[in-house]
DNA sequence: TATTGTTATACTCTATAACTATA
DNA sequence: TATAGTTATAGAGTATAACAATA
C-alpha cells in the first residue's frame, strides 16, 4: 500500500520519449550555439530573454522562468559582461537592484546565432510534424507546463526512503 | 535569401513548451533521486539501464543511448563502483572489454528510488493527461525521436557564421 | 526585517587527448 | 590497424552559505 500506482506502459513510453527528445534536442542546440556564436545554452537563454523583453531587465526578473539560483545567474551575467554582450548598471529606482542591458554586440551575436538555431529546430523537430501535431503538442505540453509550475515543488513528495 | 523560414508562432510555442517541461521535469527528478537515493541523473540512468537489460552490460553497450563520451561513462561507472552499486570485471570473451554488473546493493538503491520516481512522474506529468493525450504524445514525440535519431547530427548545419 | 545581488567555496559533470592492451 | 577502456587534465556550471547594501 505504500507503492504508488505503477506507470502504465504507454505512460512510461511517453515519459521516455519526452526525455529522449529533449535530451537530443538540447545536445544539438548546444553544439549549434557554440559553433555559431560561442554561446552556452544558459547564456543564449539570457540573451534571448533580454531581447524578447525590450533589452533590459532586472536580475530578479531575468531569473524568472530560468532555472538558476541567484548565484548562478550572477555567474552567467558576469560571463556575458566579460564578452561585452551585456552591461550591468545599478537600478534606477531601487538602488539594490541591477539592470542588465543587452548591448549592440549582444544583439549582433544573437543575430549570428538565430538563423542556425531556427534552422536546427526546423530540421530536427518540425520536419516530421503537421500543423495538427503542433497544435496537439501545444495543448498537451501546455497543460503539463502549467500544472508543473503550479504543483508543490518538492516538500509534498511522500515517504522518502533513508539514504543508502 | 539566406534566412531560414522563420518558426511560426505555434511552432515556437511548441518548442518552448517542450523545452520548459523537460527542464522542470529534469530538475524535479534530480532532486528526488538525490533525496531518495543519493543518485545523480546519469547514475540513475546507468543503474536503470542495467536493471532493464538483465543486470550486466559491456561498457560500450551501456553507452548506447546515453549521451556520454567514453571517459564520462568511465567516470560514472567508477563513482558507482566506489559506492558498491556496480562491479566491473574483465569481459569473458573479449579481453579488452569490461562488463558492468548491477550488485545487490545497486538493486536496493533502485528499489529505494523507484517508488518516489514513479510517484513524481505521476504527479508532475500524468495528472493533467488523459489516455488520449498520452497516446498523442507517444505518436508525436515518437516520430520526432525517430527522426532525430536518423537526422545527420550536425555537419549538415548550413552557413555557420564566424565566431563573435 | 526582508529583499537584491555578489562572493567564496566546493563539487559534479563533461570533453579532449594521450595512453595501454587486446583483436 | 582498429577497438575497448582508462587516465590526466582542464574547464564550465551549479548550489549553498555567508555577506553587503538598500528598502
Supply the helix-strand structural class of chain A. mainly alpha
In oligomeric terms, what are we looking at?
homodimer
> What does the main sheet of chain A amount to?
3 strands, antiparallel
Strand order of the largest sheet of chain A: 1-3-2
**What CATH first level of chain A would be assigned?**
Mainly Alpha
CATH homologous superfamily heading of chain A: Winged helix-like DNA-binding domain superfamily/Winged helix DNA-binding domain
Spatial gap, N to C terminus of chain A: 22 Å
Radius of gyration of chain A: 20 Å
CATH architecture of chain A: Orthogonal Bundle
What does this 3D model show about the protein?
The structure is a homodimer of 164-residue chains. With 164 residues, the first copy, chain A, is mostly helical. Helices cover 62% and strands 8% of the residues of chain A. Chain A has one domain (26-151): Orthogonal Bundle (Arc Repressor Mutant, subunit A), CATH 1.10.10. A 3-stranded antiparallel beta sheet of chain A has the order 1-3-2. In chain A, a hairpin with a 7-residue loop joins strand 2 and strand 3 (98-102). At the A-B interface, helix 1, helix 5 and helix 6 of A face helix 1, helix 5 and helix 6 of B. Chain A binds a DNA duplex (23 and 23 nucleotides) through helix 4.
Amino acid at each position: 500500500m505504500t507503492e504508488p500506482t505503477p506507470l502504465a506502459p504507454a505512460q512510461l513510453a511517453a515519459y521516455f520519449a519526452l526525455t529522449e527528445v529533449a535530451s537530443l534536442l538540447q545536445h544539438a542546440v548546444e553544439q549549434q550555439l557554440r559553433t555559431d556564436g560561442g554561446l552556452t545554452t544558459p547564456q543564449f537563454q539570457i540573451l534571448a530573454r533580454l531581447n524578447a523583453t525590450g533589452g533590459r531587465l532586472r536580475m530578479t526578473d531575468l531569473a524568472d522562468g530560468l532555472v538558476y539560483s541567484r548565484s548562478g545567474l550572477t555567474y552567467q551575467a558576469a560571463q556575458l559582461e566579460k564578452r561585452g554582450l551585456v552591461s550591468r548598471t545599478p537600478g534606477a529606482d531601487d538602488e539594490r537592484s541591477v539592470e542588465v542591458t543587452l548591448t549592440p554586440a549582444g544583439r549582433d551575436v544573437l543575430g549570428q546565432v538565430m538563423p542556425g538555431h531556427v534552422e536546427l529546430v526546423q530540421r530536427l523537430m518540425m520536419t516530421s510534424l503537421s500543423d495538427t501535431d503542433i497544435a496537439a503538442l501545444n495543448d498537451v505540453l501546455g497543460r503539463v507546463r502549467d500544472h508543473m509550475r503550479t504543483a508543490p515543488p518538492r516538500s509534498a513528495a511522500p515517504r522518502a526512503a533513508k539514504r543508502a
